[in-house]
Specification:
The chain has 254 residues and is mostly helical. It has one domain (42-248): Heme Oxygenase, Chain A (Up-down Bundle), CATH 1.20.910. The protein is built from 11 helices and no strands. The N and C termini lie far apart (83 Å).
């Protein structure tokens, strides 16, 4: 029986080594050209997409959202802002430069003395009084999220704090931007929400926080960067849970 033999051309080992080396160099150049927050995008985008696809956010963007879950969200967000301000306070104490210390001090001041006033005004459009805001008990999700943020801010490094803080800004900016691209809702109260988080001022704040994390991560080891990724992931998950808790109007079971 005659067997047809096929000639196999084997590349010299040195050529294979050259190909592997070239691929490695290209990957290294690409990796070095990417900022740290660029490397977070594959992790972040599914999170933001899940938030935008959540029925509460979908109905918010369409202007068809029932008031009750949004009233719940507004009250819980007020509670969240109090501990959010505490994170800025820790940021001011841990910031390595005077400029960064000043920025966190400004954010603390604007959150307490401006943003919370604006939040009270916005809440009144949903017939939520200031006393009702003040009496709001944190939901299980709000408590878990704010405890996580304050703990990281108090016990972690400055980089840890920034990594845990970023998803709040990035997630809201992405959500607002995607909803705005679909067209503003007819309900002016919901349209105002979309416009605020898609707006230039909030986009600049998001870019500032991303740039800050890039600067902090630039000279860190891969192990430290992995810690930043883990903290970022946890906060991003809580961002989704915060919407979901409002949709379900989550309460303590006992």
């Amino acid at each position: 029986m005659k067997v047809a033999l096929q000639t196999v051309h084997i590349k010299p080992r040195s050529e294979y080594n050259w190909i592997i080396f070239t691929i490695y160099i290209i990957q290294e150049i690409t990796r070095q050209d990417m900022s740290f927050t660029d490397t977070l995008e594959p992790l972040a985008e599914p999170m933001w997409d899940a938030i935008v696809a959540h029925p509460m956010v979908e109905e918010l963007g369409a202007g068809s959202l029932d008031e009750e879950p949004f009233r719940y969200w507004v009250k819980q967000d007020y509670v969240y802002l109090i501990d959010y301000a505490r994170v800025f306070a820790h940021g001011a104490t841990k910031a390595p430069t005077l400029e960064q210390m000043g920025t966190f001090a400004e954010l603390l001041d604007s959150t307490i003395n401006t943003e919370m006033d604006l939040h009270r005004e916005y809440a009144s459009e949903f017939r939520i009084s200031e006393s009702e805001l003040e009496a709001t008990e944190p939901s299980p999700t709000t408590r878990a999220y704010t405890d996580f943020l304050v703990r990281v801010a108090a016990t972690g490094t400055f980089g840890d704090l920034v990594a845990a803080l970023l998803p709040c800004m990035w997630g809201f900016n992405e959500t607002g931007t995607q909803l705005a691209a679909q067209g503003l809702p007819d309900d002016e109260r919901y349209a105002a929400w979309v416009e605020m988080y898609a707006g230039e001022e909030f986009t600049e704040l998001t870019s500032w926080c991303k740039d800050l994390l890039d600067d902090v991560a630039a000279d860190k080891s891969e192990r430290q960067r992995e810690t930043f990724r883990s903290l970022f992931r946890t906060s991003a998950r809580y961002e989704y849970r915060f919407w979901d808790a409002a949709w379900r109007q989550e309460e303590w079971s006992i």
